[in-house]
UniProtKB/TrEMBL annotation:
It holds the Pfam family zf-C2H2_12. PANTHER family: DUF4371 DOMAIN-CONTAINING PROTEIN, EPM2A-INTERACTING PROTEIN 1. It comes from Mugilogobius chulae. InterPro entries: RNaseH-like_sf, SPIN-DOC_Znf-C2H2. Signal peptide: none annotated. This is SPIN-DOC-like zinc-finger domain-containing protein. It comes from the Eukaryota. Residues 12-55 form the SPIN-DOC-like zinc-finger domain.
Length: 464
């Protein structure tokens, strides 16, 4: 039977007895730095007596002088080790700082070349603030080691992109189900981009949302084009389509066409499992918000704003006029039909500056009869209030990791669309009953009141 190999361990008493210490499971002599292969007492004692015989005489065993000498030699060894390990730690910190700074630049949509500008600003600040400090030179030296050149920022971005892609691939393998949301829009270079978002559900019912892809549509944007680009990406990415549960799109014919739409092509593809299709509720809400029937208010507002902002000289004069009056806002906002939240914001700004706008138009001898019409002003105030509330609802419907239950009942610090619909139902009933005082909203639906509806401007108002 083979003899069992014996294991030896370093004894802390050897530090004062033989001037040895342990470094990475090795016995190291504090005097000369030599190592002993096997930590046996005999081996350590033999090296001490043969290589350093004078130490036993100069530093007697058990004396305070011997203890102090051992402590001094050990401190010198630790300092020597830190001298070689510190540059590695410093380089690691500089690399991490470079990644964080590159991430900050990209999130703020800055060019790669702005990294040099950022570093230059940091060096100026460091030299000004830390120059006379105790460790100021170390701080300045550490900042100078952070690499933020254009090529470095590009490499950092590429590395982060690859890492995020690997994490997404891992999540796709581990998730149990996922759903997709697709939306097509045109960028500044007139190229249609298909944005694909994914929400994954894991075994513990936790969810995770990510931007899956941004796919360019360089030619046409028909349903077949969207399908081919999407299918090519899913195959290349090796997305497990058997886990697909639903796809959400807007109501465009290219997406929802019965025969040639994107969804129709996906459902006819045998690689796709049976899935649910949803219409984006934010698109639906935005479409409904446009049907307000207040063109007699919106059209003049847009016309007045465009007349003020269309000419540079007139626009500058108007802004100077507002500055002289110290108004809350310094300018008017332009209206855009594409931006859903534009209407409420420009109406709110216009209503706040209506008196100043009227004075400015009078100074230019323009017609201000509309701004002096009480009924039109009331309609303007009503439309401003309604569109502001609709904008609030639109914002509540947005957000990451927001489920349908959150949207229905409560989201963030506000109320969901069920409470929103109930509140406006009560408001409409009060208006139909010609009740214009403060409204206490109930917690449960009230019986519907049947009264003939009429334009808001024709209702009786409480005038002073």
């Amino acid at each position: 039977m083979a003899k069992r190999k014996k294991t030896y361990f370093f004894n802390r008493d050897w530090e004062e007895e033989f001037f040895f210490t342990e470094v990475k499971d090795k016995c190291v002599c504090l005097i000369c730095g030599s190592t002993v292969a096997i930590p046996k007492r005999h081996n350590v004692e033999r090296h001490y007596t043969t290589a350093h015989p004078s130490f036993h005489t100069n530093f007697p065993a058990g004396s305070a002088l011997r203890v102090e000498k051992a402590r001094e030699l050990k401190a010198a060894l630790v300092k020597q080790q830190s001298f070689f390990t510190r540059p590695g730690k410093k380089s690691k910190k500089a690399t991490e700082a470079s990644f964080r700074a590159a991430n900050y630049l990209i999130k703020n949509k800055r060019a790669f070349t702005d990294g040099d500008v950022l570093k230059g600003a940091m060096m100026i600040i460091a030299e000004t603030v830390f120059k006379d400090e105790k460790n100021g030179s170390d701080v300045i030296s550490s900042l100078s080691d952070v690499q933020l050149g254009a090529s470095t920022v590009a490499r950092r971005l590429s590395a982060m992109s690859e890492n995020m892609s690997e994490q997404l691939d891992q999540d796709l393998r581990e998730c149990k189900w996922f759903s997709l949301q697709c939306d097509e829009s045109v960028d500044n270079s007139s190229i249609a981009q298909l944005m694909v978002f994914i929400r994954m559900v894991f075994a513990d019912f936790s969810t995770k949302e990510e931007l899956l892809a941004l796919l360019p549509l360089k030619t046409t944007t028909r349903g077949i084009d969207i399908y081919e680009v999407m299918k090519s990406f899913l195959v290349e990415k090796k997305v497990p389509l058997e886990k697909l549960v639903s796809i959400t799109t807007d109501g465009a014919p290219a997406m929802t066409g019965r025969r040639a739409g994107f969804i129709a092509h996906c459902k006819s593809d045998p690689d796709f499992p049976p899935f649910l299709h949803y219409h984006c509720i934010i698109h639906q809400q935005a479409i409904c918000a446009k049907v307000t029937g207040f063109d007699h208010v919106m059209s003049p507002v847009v016309k007045i704003i465009n007349s003020i902002r269309s000419k540079a000289k007139q626009h500058r004069t108007f802004k100077t006029f507002l500055e002289e009056l110290s108004t809350e806002y310094g300018d008017l906002l332009l209206h855009s039909e594409i931006r859903w939240l534009s209407r409420g914001r420009i109406l709110q700004r216009f209503l706040a500056l209506k008196d100043e706008i009227k004075e400015f138009m009078k100074s230019r001898e323009e017609d201000t009869s509309l701004l002096e019409d009480t009924e039109w002003i009331l309609d303007l105030a009503f439309l401003t209030d309604i569109t502001t509330k609709l904008n609030y609802l639109n914002t509540e419907l947005q957000g990451k990791s927001c489920s349908s239950g959150d949207i229905r009942f409560t989201h963030g610090l506000g109320f969901g669309w069920s409470a929103f619909a109930l509140a406006y139902k009560v408001i409409v009933e009060h208006f139909q009953c010609q009740l214009f005082g403060p409204i206490a909203l109930p917690l449960s639906p009230r019986p519907r009141l049947s009264h003939p509806s009429r334009p808001f401007s024709q209702w009786p108002y409480a005038r002073p």
